[in-house]
Amino acid sequence: MPLERVAVIGAGAWGTALAQAAAMAGRYVSLVARNEAVIAEINARRTNSAYLGALQLSDRISAAPALAEGTELVILAVPAQASRKALTGLGASALEGLPVVLSAKGLETGTLLRQSEILAQCAPGARAYVLSGPSFAHDVAAGRPTAVTLAGSDREETETIAAALAGPSFRPYAADDLLGVELVGALKNVYALACGAVEGAGLGASARAALIARAYAELGRLVVAAGGSAQTLGGLAGLGDLTLSCTSAQSRNYSQGMALGRDEPLRPGGALAEGVATAPVAQAMARRLGVDAPLVDAVNLLLDRDVSITQILSGLMARPLKRED
Ligand SMILES: NC(=O)C1=CN([C@@H]2O[C@H](COP(=O)(O)OP(=O)(O)OC[C@H]3O[C@@H](n4cnc5c(N)ncnc54)[C@H](OP(=O)(O)O)[C@@H]3O)[C@@H](O)[C@H]2O)C=CC1
Ligand SMILES: O=C(CO)COP(=O)(O)O
């Protein structure tokens, strides 16, 4: 089987979970961490307690401070705003000719770039793939079943990578629409903030469901205008992840949204909510594309603390009535 030796960059919750998934799929995994204590704990005790509690990691995983010789597949699993720094640290020559699976769900602030565009700048000789879909790190690491999308422009290599990562409880479906998969994965976090705010403010499950449906329509307008496929929207990375992240307090974005809805402070330094950094980027993108994105606008107002979610929903309800499209 090709792709025996996988390196996962970033030993946080998602990197460790993806390392575990790859190990359960039969790969040998080097989990690259920047923190020496994390490396020592994984190698000595087979746990990463800061991120995954007492969960026992596969003995096919070893932790290391740098990319090992002989790596055949790289998975990048640091937060979206840290990807550029992590890739620069690895160096373009180390990634030359390698497939790199991008797993962060966010757009870069300032540049408005997607993860694959950052990879193209930092390591032009690497080949980009994107993994996205409904998958909480704790679920994946514990071997609870889910299915995700693995997108890439080389159909044969996409299928080979999907097969290399497929295990008894982790099922990657190959897809072509790399741009669309990247965008829906990043943007669903913005809508998850809004849905969490609706719950936090006690506005009810009906409002939340209506918001999810309108978010789905808005996401479709954005993805298609940006050049993605409408089919991606109904897939695992679109509908699948939107459903998960917009309904579960296990989502950091949703739970940060709940704090916004209660008018509580966000937790600085707390668990990462990618939607907070991505919301202004999404707004700039929508404006550049000329797409009407009232929910993205609303989340930005909410994050600026200009208005409450209740006021925002009242404003949306007062917009001129229109056909549902
Ligand atoms: N958690 C989840 O359920 C899922 C997360 N994702 C996505 O995965 C991405 C990462 O999230 P998650 O793992 O949860 O975040 P965590 O906060 O759990 O972990 C982030 C990890 O990235 C490391 N890191 C940060 N900056 C750098 C850097 N410059 N160089 C090297 N390592 C760095 C951190 O290292 P250190 O420990 O030293 O700070 C830490 O190990 C996000 O984009 C998220 O949307 C996708 C699906 C599921
Ligand atoms: O993307 C995720 C699940 O698919 C994780 O969502 P959060 O980053 O909101 O926790």
From TrEMBL:
It catalyses: sn-glycerol 3-phosphate + NADP(+) = dihydroxyacetone phosphate + NADPH + H(+); sn-glycerol 3-phosphate + NAD(+) = dihydroxyacetone phosphate + NADH + H(+). The keyword Magnesium does not apply. It holds the Pfam family NAD_Gly3P_dh_N. Pathway: Membrane lipid metabolism; glycerophospholipid metabolism. NAD(+) binds at residues 10-15, 137, 252. PANTHER family: GLYCEROL-3-PHOSPHATE DEHYDROGENASE, GLYCEROL-3-PHOSPHATE DEHYDROGENASE [NAD(+)] 2, CHLOROPLASTIC. This is Glycerol-3-phosphate dehydrogenase [NAD(P)+].
